[in-house]
Amino acid sequence: MKNPELKPLLAERLKSLMPDKNDFMSFLKMLKKPTQNSIRCNTLKIEPGKLKERLEKNGWKISQPFKDYPERMIVEGKFANDKDNSDISRKYQSASGSERKLSDLAPGELGRSLEHLLGYYYVQEIASMLSVLALRPKPGETVLDLCAAPGSKTTQMAAAMKNSGTLIANDVNLGRIRILATNLERCGVANTIITRNQGFILCKKLKEQGFLFDKILLDAPCSGEGTLRSSKATYEMWNIQSVKNLSNIQKALLASAIDLLKKDGELVYSTCTHSPEENEEVLDFALKKFDKIKIESVNLPIKCRPGLKKWNDKDYDKSVEKSCRIYPQDNDTEGFFVAKLRKVK
Description:
The protein is an alpha+beta fold.
């Protein structure tokens, strides 16, 4: 189905973010391209190499685009008319030496495989994996996932922590929490406590108890501009008032979460939107409110553009430039935003 047209104001704002005409045209072109079939190997249950071997025996062609992160995989397609998969590992070549034709995966096939049902992998878009890569939770740490459901990043953090330490996964919506619990169980996560609270209320309760964290992930609710490739609803639902309302919610969540960091603790703030009001403006607010935090550079395995120091008539703290803007045309991913903060006092 063809994507709807961008609303005029959204198109105007996106064009302002990408003033180079060719860049903006590349962005629009990428919106018409389906997203890649990306999965993340669940290392709590299986090693990436063994998962790759199993999936190749199913006739799937698997690539691992990030050398240092072999658990990130792309399912490029499935070999067509492949009656005998025993030679899949022979570099996908036929006897004549030419690569065999790939067919598209059937709708929902990634979620119906035995390996998925066993929790060997999580269907997750590449950009969605980046906030946890920036946070780098470690075994034994105390970590908070403030807006956790449906669990893609929670399960990713649990795997990075090797099921040790303590991971609190919070969400406010009961239906989404049920999905979160199901995903944690499927993936064999054993170090996680699920809570149901408004983010601000949970932070207040934890602060009153003197409970502090080594790491916090705030993958904030947002307007979803980065999901235009995969979500037709985003075209219809987007409006500027929602952007402004969400910005206020994000500021309150971030301010509440910062109070729960230990000294030298780290917090990653991420969204799946391009809107500066929901990204750099939120960081600028936090920097002005708290003198105990600073923004640190983010090192990610894809192309990042620096955060904006100015948007319309607003100037932001220059350190927001250290944040990472991720555009679909740069990496063949969804759009995303990642920033890392450290508590220094």
